[in-house]
Design goal:
By secondary structure, the chain is mostly helical. The protein has a domain of 55 residues. The protein has 13 helices and no strands.
């Protein structure tokens, strides 16, 4: 198989950004993953055709926007998302935590990494997530914020024991969420 060399740097940034978003060719995405412009690299990270090996390259990027784009990509698997949670700045990057909590492919293991975020919005997203495990939901059902407890009460993965306890929650919205929960009563 003959490898074709492509010099994409000669094209304008606007073209490379668009190409990064729509290309289906792995070799093009690999080249663009090393582009000097962070918006081009973010485009690669957002591309639904980006493969795990390209995500690995992008995880080494200094741009937080590139990392956020990787985290938001529904094709970023558990291994990639866990690597993001291990970044030294992850604890203070609340937007990144929220993006991971909202990613439909975040697994129970990944969601455990963000369930104790100081940001209520992140905890609500984790409590609402369909992949959140019973242990995490039990913790979130005891949260000091009633909106987090309400989200946990609404999640069909919440244990029967926690739903029974939440029926007596001081906030009526939490109680209502338990009664509206479609899980087996």
């Amino acid at each position: 198989m003959k490898v074709i060399e492509i010099d994409l740097e000669k094209y304008p940034v606007s073209f490379r950004k668009e190409l990064a978003l729509i290309s289906k060719e792995r070799h093009v995405l690999l080249i663009l993953a090393h582009d000097e412009d962070p918006e081009v690299r973010s485009g690669v990270a957002s591309n639904l055709n980006t493969t795990e090996d390209v995500f690995e390259i992008l995880l080494e990027d200094d741009s937080i926007e590139v990392i956020k784009s990787v985290a938001a990509n529904p094709n970023a698997g558990e291994r990639i998302l866990l690597k993001i949670t291990e970044k030294p700045y992850f604890e203070s990057e609340f937007e990144l935590q929220l993006i991971i909590a909202l990613n439909l492919n975040s697994t129970e293991k990944v969601l455990e990494k963000v369930e104790n975020s100081p940001k209520v919005e992140v905890r609500i997203a984790v409590a609402n997530h369909l992949n959140t495990g019973k242990k995490s939901l039990s913790n979130l059902s005891r949260d000091s914020d009633p909106n987090v407890r309400k989200a946990a009460a609404s999640n069909s993965n919440t244990s029967r024991e926690d739903r029974i306890r939440l029926r007596k929650d001081p906030d009526w919205r939490v109680q209502k969420a338990v009664w509206n929960n479609k899980a087996k009563k």
